[in-house]
UniProtKB/TrEMBL annotation:
Cited SUPFAM superfamilies: P-loop containing nucleoside triphosphate hydrolases
GO MF annotation list: ATP binding; ATP hydrolysis activity; transmembrane transporter activity
Sequence ranges assigned to domain ABC transporter in this UniProt record: 2-216
One GO term describing the cellular component: plasma membrane
Organism: Chitinophaga silvatica
GO biological process: lipoprotein localization to outer membrane; protein localization to outer membrane
Protein family according to the UniProt entry: Belongs to the ABC transporter superfamily.
Regions crossing the membrane: none
Identification of the protein by name: ABC transporter ATP-binding protein
Matching InterPro entries: AAA+_ATPase (IPR003593), ABC_transporter-like_ATP-bd (IPR003439), ABC_transporter-like_CS (IPR017871), ABC_transpr_LolD-like (IPR015854), MacB-like_ATP-bd (IPR017911), P-loop_NTPase (IPR027417)
PROSITE patterns according to UniProt: ABC_TRANSPORTER_1, ABC_TRANSPORTER_2
This protein's UniProt keywords: ATP-binding, Cell membrane, Membrane, Nucleotide-binding, Translocase, Transport
CDD domains, sorted: ABC_MJ0796_LolCDE_FtsE
Length: 216
């Protein structure tokens, strides 16, 4: 489903990625681990089109992402790639339900369909009693589940998660990883997860280790 070949990334004369190859299949949970500075987040941001490689190519369902620019790239990203970040990035002025709906509205899907899907996702994630709560009225674990629902609203091919448990206590972190497993089983959802949590990483289907800008 997703294939990247010989990805490199340089900042000035500093090489961050040094020829990374990665293939991820549909319905697979892949974790990327390694020490700080190994290039994990840089790789994830490039795979998610939030950054561009210095060289190499990425294909998502046979689409060469290098062929997409500007609005076309932004539209493709919104429709096909979901994101979960360590600090949630929920919009504080909107409710949980509204936060989840926003990417669907941007995609141009009918508002009634977006709301129906958002309600389904929030109920699936155990947040049916928190629909009208704003982020500051939610616990850290609840905020992250809202972020998961938002990432899933457009039925993305792949969800990219950058340290999704990094801001959670051990109980909520464990529950979130189990949630990823359930979403893989129920929805055949694909995840690529960057994590420092070496206890939780083995729960994935496959674990990749990065060191000095390479997968070893």
């Amino acid at each position: 489903m997703l294939t990247a070949r010989n990805l490199t990334k340089n900042y000035s004369n500093l090489p961050i990625l040094k020829g990374v190859d990665i293939t991820v299949g549909k319905g697979e949970i892949v974790t990327i681990v390694g020490s700080s500075g190994a290039g994990k987040s840089t790789l994830l941001h490039i795979l998610g089109t939030l950054d561009t490689p210095s060289s190499g190519e990425i294909f998502l369902n046979d689409v060469n992402l290098a062929d997409l620019k500007g609005d076309s790239l932004a539209d493709f990203r919104n429709r096909h790639i979901g994101f979960i970040f360590q600090f949630h990035h929920l919009l504080p002025e909107f409710s949980a339900l509204e936060n989840v709906c926003i990417p669907g509205y941007i995609a141009g899907t009918k508002k009634s369909e977006v709301k129906e899907k958002a309600l389904f996702l929030l109920e699936t994630l155990g947040l049916q009693h928190r629909l009208d709560n704003k982020p500051n009225q939610l616990s850290g674990g609840e905020q992250q589940r809202v972020a998961v629902a938002r990432a899933l609203i457009n039925n993305p091919d792949v969800v990219m998660a950058d340290e999704p448990t990094g801001n959670l206590d051990s109980k909520n972190a464990y529950e979130l990883h189990h949630l990823f497993l359930e979403l893989r089983d129920k929805l055949k959802q694909t995840f690529i997860i960057v994590t420092h949590n070496e206890e939780l990483a083995p729960m994935s289907d496959r674990q990749l280790v990065m060191k000095d800008g390479r997968i070893i």
